[in-house]
Write a structure and sequence with these properties.
The complex is a heterodimer of chains A (746) and B (346). Chain A is of the alpha/beta class and 746 residues long. Chain A has 23 helices and 28 strands. Chain A folds into five domains: 85 residues, Alpha-Beta Plaits (2-Layer Sandwich); 67 residues, no CATH class; 172 residues, Alpha-Beta Complex (DHBP synthase); 130 residues, Nucleotidyltransferase, domain 5 (2-Layer Sandwich); 180 residues, Nucleotidyltransferase, domain 5 (2-Layer Sandwich), CATH 3.30.420. In chain A, the strands form five sheets. A ten-stranded mixed beta sheet of chain A has the order 6-13-7-8-12-9-11-10-14-15, sandwiched between helices. Chain A has a six-stranded mixed beta sheet with strand order 16-19-18-17-20-21, with helices on both faces. In chain A, strands 4-1-3-2-5 form a five-stranded mixed beta sheet, covered by helices on one side. Chain A is globular, with a radius of gyration of 27 Å. With 346 residues, chain B is α+β, with helices and mostly antiparallel strands. In chain B, the strands form three sheets. Chain B has a seven-stranded mixed beta sheet. The longest helix of chain B is centred in the middle third of the chain and has 18 residues. The mean pLDDT of chain B is 91. Classes of the chains: A alpha/beta (746), B alpha+beta (346). At the A-B interface, α12, β22, α15 and α17 of A face α7 and β14 of B. Bound molecules: fe (iii) ion, magnesium ion and zinc ion (2 copies). One zinc ion (ZN) binds next to α3 of chain A. Chain B: It comes from Pyrobaculum oguniense (strain DSM 13380 / JCM 10595 / TE7).
């Protein structure tokens, strides 16, 4: 008779792994035990005639919520056990395991909600071992009911029976820590915007009716509140924009199911599988010509952000609206983190919404919806949060010491890292907001503790004005920890390498809005040769003045003025109309252009300038707005023969083409494609000079379809390997991954 | 070439603190940072103090004034040089009694202009009853100095010092509109307003004797900190306070008195009005129980726009932050102003 001790690492806690193991063991008639270890991993002991068969089965098939990264199997002494048991968690830490992300409701659970027995039919919080909230309700590790928000909901006798008996519970409910039913689960309440309860037989149906009638309703979900509003009514969407002080940033639309979503956007097979995945992200997809959605939902854009319900509550809510889809945008006010408790919702959303659909399952961790798009055919993260975070990202090198990485500053995330694992936090947001900064601090502390880390090295960006840099310094003082400072684009480059498991010298194209350069200038269109902790700035977009610093990012016409000045030696007067300060402001800008204090090689600022010069965008009311609008304006465009050695010449060419009445979409398309090929050519030259065969692209502008297509064409045609992001976001949310990876080279 | 001194180093900003720390503060022994029992460069404040042995303090301050242009809407460099040092003495709780000056002029500077400037300075001293007890006068060859620079030493006597130590619970009180001086100078420098008309931008430069002496007399022990928010404006003053006291200071954006024209020009230039200098305003940290009364008292003294703008809170973590409560209710981190443009918006 043989026996084995097995350690499983991956996403193995909180995803039905233990009950699955128990049922597998029972079906094979082997004895032993399974238990969660304190740090997160799972330990299994099996003995019996078919113990080897058990190991094989474990490796080969399992439910899709379980992700096995590693299975360490050791031969062991038989213990003479008679049955297979799930043992109480052990506090001892071994190899730490993944904190499971939140999972969308599975098909079986939804079926129960729609046509199951009395206890689960119409139950808004139905979930099982393979679905439901996880990270968002987790107070500490290990994942046991008493360590989650579910502790406030003692099981009813039936749930208790299902929980403790494999026969009654089945693999989906047996030992499921979040088990609940209508009898014992959280309650839903409808409130008006002042917090007064609204009487109704069924608050969810009532909320659906209110949305259909044009009211704006906050709905508590898994990681925070959404704001639901009718998407087909211009006046409702306009009112929501007014109340949220969000003039044009696109809203996401939640559609009941794929069939409904297909009426709104073009969905191919890959998009469909993303939309229906357990991660259930928002996916940006091309709008349908005859889409019933108000044009105010994503004004000026050719794509709509669409996602499907991930809780029974959301499903039932949508099912009872007239439209079967609705705006479902995050419940925050401009620039602030999304609300996750009623106090915040009443305080901050009270002026935005008419009603609140609330429930009493506490959200421990705020988790925003994830957002993906297709760039150059590859699903690319615009935001990696619910469903993905905080699953770790394995890197190809081992870290000598644990790392805490503080990321960038806007639209950012942090990370803790150890061994060969980088745990990127969920999306944190803009750190000029104090609540977001506190969130970053608290989440980093939470992960640091959850993974039982000690003596970390700290990593932050080089930008002295970043609040993340400030927080990093505070940690350094508190812990007396060694601190590394990594240049922004070096971190972007290393993030791309870590993402692709690349551990050799490479050339990187780092393109984004801005990163603090070694020379104090605003970098953002960089060709770097990267050898681990060292890099050489091989080439960059030509320096152009950046009049007023950040003001030039907020007011694209300032950058247009800078580019006109650089390309033609003069600034057209009509730009004054596009500046809030009018002619006096333009005069200030011109004076600064004659004696510039700050220069930039930013790709984002170039795109801003082009967008302004072509009349595509004058304002930036959300991050990247001019660039995003420029990309949208290029949809369906055809290539014009633009000849330019650098982006300043390219700007001049684009302006000339536009003046000679070439179609806007052709000009917009060509300028982005050509920018890509200029960068691609530079990267090829650099790679050949350095004798490396890989070019990676990263940075916030690396989500742009046309630029990436232009780059990829050049890289491939000069025979090099081209890498773009897959597992981590190219934008500043990925910075902490690169920062962490950097320390492995020190 | 090695590192060089940059304009940002002298902007009264984060960079200024850094260069001073490395050049001076870190190099001088603790015992030489002050006169025993007094206040010196060991503590960031407006002025220095030396104990006089009878329980009172001699308050001393020095400042050099270079302003381009020397004449600006609302004043000139003469008024500025006199008022600035008088105000610094006042902000430490002192009664100004004497001033010394050092004037350096560029060869070829119009004598008439110099006369106007010195007359302005003397007028302030006369009105405040402050003696001019010494000075220095030099002329530099053309091109070796930009027009004129004046340094003044302010001297006063204090019964008790206001050493800037805001207490948790304190209210932050300002005496009136902020940023007027900074906005007027900046607008003149970049030529968007002419001398005279001013586009509604007028420097607030003035001595604050009429405000501070009665205030200190009546509410002295309740005033835990006092500043005239000159270079770096309110943002700098509050950041200094929060850092030094290990507290968090929260200010209500909508409560801060800023003139619409100041807000307009600041916005156009991309500058936070809270980082603009005032030369005739005071910021106080006051016990909550008398804060309302203090504001009323200030109004009676003619400071009609005095207001409570925020409060000091005890902090366990996140010490030293200054937070701006925005009109929509969010908390924005108000940083100490930087002299350099450091872009961070992606
Ligand atoms: Fe970036
Ligand atoms: Mg003081
Ligand atoms: Zn399920
Ligand atoms: Zn139950």
């Amino acid at each position: 008779m043989r026996a084995f001790k097995i350690y499983a690492v991956g996403i193995v806690q909180g995803v039905g792994f233990r009950p699955y193991v128990k049922m597998l063991a029972d079906s094979l008639g082997v004895a032993g035990y399974v238990k969660n270890m304190g740090g997160g991993e799972v330990e299994i002991f099996v003995e019996g005639e078919r113990a080897a068969k058990f190991v094989e089965a474990l490796w080969n098939s399992r439910p899709r919520a379980i992700v096995l990264e590693e299975l360490i199997v050791q031969e062991a002494e038989p213990q003479g056990r008679r049955s297979f048991e799930i043992l109480k968690s052990d506090e001892e830490a071994r190899t730490p395991s993944n904190v499971p992300p939140d999972l969308a409701i599975c098909e079986e659970c939804l079926r129960e909600v729609l046509e199951g027995d009395e206890r689960r039919r119409g139950y808004y919080f139905n979930s099982c071992s393979f679905c439901g909230p996880r990270f968002s309700v987790m107070r500490r590790l290990p994942y046991d009911r008493e360590n989650t928000s579910w502790v406030s909901f003692p099981m009813c006798p039936q749930c208790a029976a299902e929980y403790s008996s494999p026969r009654l519970g089945g693999v989906r409910r047996f030992f499921y820590q979040g088990i609940s039913c209508k009898l014992d689960g959280p309650r839903v309440r409808l409130l008006d915007s002042s917090g007064k309860p609204v009487e109704s037989d069924n608050p969810v149906l009532k909320a659906a009716e209110l949305v259909s009638r044009g009211y704006i309703v906050a709905v508590k979900g898994i990681g925070g509140y959404h704001i639901f509003a009718r998407a087909t009514d211009d006046s409702v969407v306009a009112e929501l924009r007014r109340r949220k002080r969000r003039p044009s940033q696109p809203f996401a639309v939640m559609a009941l199911d794929l069939r409904v979503a297909e009426r709104l956007v073009h969905i191919d097979e890959r998009a469909a599988s993303l939309l229906t995945s357990p991660q259930r992200p928002i996916v940006l997809l091309p709008k349908k010509e005859d889409s019933p959605i108000s044009p105010l939902v994503a004004p000026g854009l050719d794509k709509e952000g669409v996602f499907l319900p991930y809780t029974a509550l959301q499903y039932l809510l949508l099912a009872h609206t007239d439209d079967k889809f609705a705006v479902a945008t995050s419940g925050n006010v401009h620039g602030e983190p999304m609300c996750k408790d009623l106090k915040c919702a009443l305080e901050k959303l009270g002026r935005v919404v008419d009603y609140l659909l609330d429930h009493d399952l506490e959200i421990v961790h705020r988790v925003d919806d994830s957002v993906l798009r297709f760039t150059n055919g590859v699903p690319t993260f615009l935001r990696r949060s619910r469903g993905y975070a905080p699953a770790w990202i394995r890197i190809p090198r081992r870290l000598k010491r644990p790392v805490v990485a503080f990321g960038a500053d806007l639209q950012t995330a942090g990370a803790v890292a150890f061994e060969d694992k980088v745990v990127l936090t969920q999306y944190i947001g803009d750190l000029d907001n104090f609540d977001a900064l506190k969130d970053l601090d608290q989440e980093l502390r939470w992960f640091f503790k959850a993974y039982r880390l000690r003596d970390p090295v700290l990593v932050c960006d080089k930008n002295p004005a970043y609040n993340s840099t400030r927080l990093c310094k505070e940690w350094a003082e508190e812990l007396g920890a060694e601190t590394f400072v990594v240049q922004h684009h070096h971190a972007h480059a290393l993030a791309a390498a870590a993402d692709a498991k690349l551990d050799e010298p490479f050339v990187a194209i780092a393109i984004d809005g801005v990163g603090y350069g070694d020379d104090g200038m605003a970098w953002g269109g960089e060709i770097l040769f990267v050898e681990g902790a060292k890099y050489v700035r091989e080439r960059h977009l030509r320096y152009v003045p950046m009049p007023g610093g950040d003001l030039a990012a907020l007011r694209p016409a300032r950058m247009a003025a800078a580019y006109f000045h650089e390309a033609f030696g003069e600034v057209p007067m009509w730009l004054a109309e596009r500046l809030p300060g009018g002619l006096p402001e333009l005069e200030v800008v011109e004076r600064e252009l004659k004696a510039p204090k700050l220069f930039t090689s930013s790709t984002g600022r170039f795109l801003d300038a082009v967008a302004a010069a072509l009349g595509v965008a004058w304002e930036r009311t959300y991050e990247g707005e001019p660039a995003i609008r420029l990309e949208a304006a290029a949809a369906g465009g055809r290539p014009l023969p633009l000849e330019a050695e650098d982006q300043v010449e390219l700007f001049a060419q684009a302006v000339e083409a536009y003046r000679s009445r070439r179609p806007l979409k052709d000009v917009a398309y060509s300028v982005q494609l050509k920018l890509g090929s200029i960068l691609g050519t530079w990267a090829c030259e650099s790679a050949q000079r350095r004798g490396v065969d890989t070019v990676a692209v990263s940075g916030g502008a690396a989500v742009n379809d046309f630029i990436i297509a232009g780059i990829a064409q050049e890289i491939v045609s000069c025979g090099l390997r081209f890498i773009q992001h897959i597992r981590a976001p190219p934008g500043d949310e990925g910075i902490a991954l690169g920062q962490s990876y950097m320390t492995s080279f020190t | 070439m090695g590192e060089v001194v940059k304009l940002a180093h002298g902007a009264g900003s984060v960079e200024t603190s850094q260069i001073l720390e490395s050049l001076i503060f870190s190099k001088i022994e603790e015992r030489l940072k002050k006169v025993e029992g007094g206040l010196g460069i060991d503590f960031p404040d407006d002025a220095a103090a030396i104990p006089m042995g009878d329980g009172r303090f001699l308050v001393v301050t020095v400042d050099s004034y270079t302003v381009n242009p020397p004449f600006f809407p609302g004043g000139d460099i003469g008024v500025l040089a006199a008022s600035g040092s008088i105000n610094d003495v006042l902000m430490l709780g002192g009664k100004p009694i004497a001033l010394m000056d050092a004037i350096i002029v560029e060869e070829g500077f119009p004598l008439e202009d110099l006369r106007r400037i010195v007359d302005s300075m003397l007028r302030v001293l006369r009105e405040e009853g402050v003696a001019l007890i010494g000075g220095d006068f030099k002329v530099m060859p053309k091109g070796q100095i930009d027009k004129i620079a004046i340094a003044t030493v302010g001297i006063g006597i204090a019964d008790r010092l206001i050493v800037d130590r805001p207490q948790p619970g304190d209210k932050i009180v300002v005496s009136g509109y902020l940023g007027d001086h900074g906005a007027a100078i900046l607008a003149r420098q970049i030529g968007i307003i002419d001398e005279g008309s001013g586009g509604g931008l007028v420097s607030d430069v003035k001595p604050l004797t009429r405000l501070m002496l009665p205030l200190v007399e009546k509410y002295g022990p309740h005033i835990h900190a006092a500043r005239d928010p000159t270079r770096g404006g309110l943002a700098m003053a509050l950041n200094d306070w929060a850092k030094a006291s290990g507290t968090v200071i929260i200010v209500e954006e909508s409560a801060i008195p800023i003139r619409p024209q100041v807000a307009y020009y600041a916005n156009m230039l991309g500058i936070d009005p809270l980082a603009l200098a005032s030369e005739g305003a005071a910021v106080l940290s006051v016990s909550p129980d008398v804060a309302e009364e203090v504001v009323e008292f200030m109004k009676k003294l003619g400071f009609d726009n005095a207001a409570i703008i925020g409060e000091v809170r005890k902090a366990e973590r996140y010490r030293g932050y200054v937070l701006l409560k925005t009109v929509v209710g969010g908390l924005r981190i108000l940083e100490a102003p930087r002299g350099d443009l450091v872009p961070r918006i992606c």
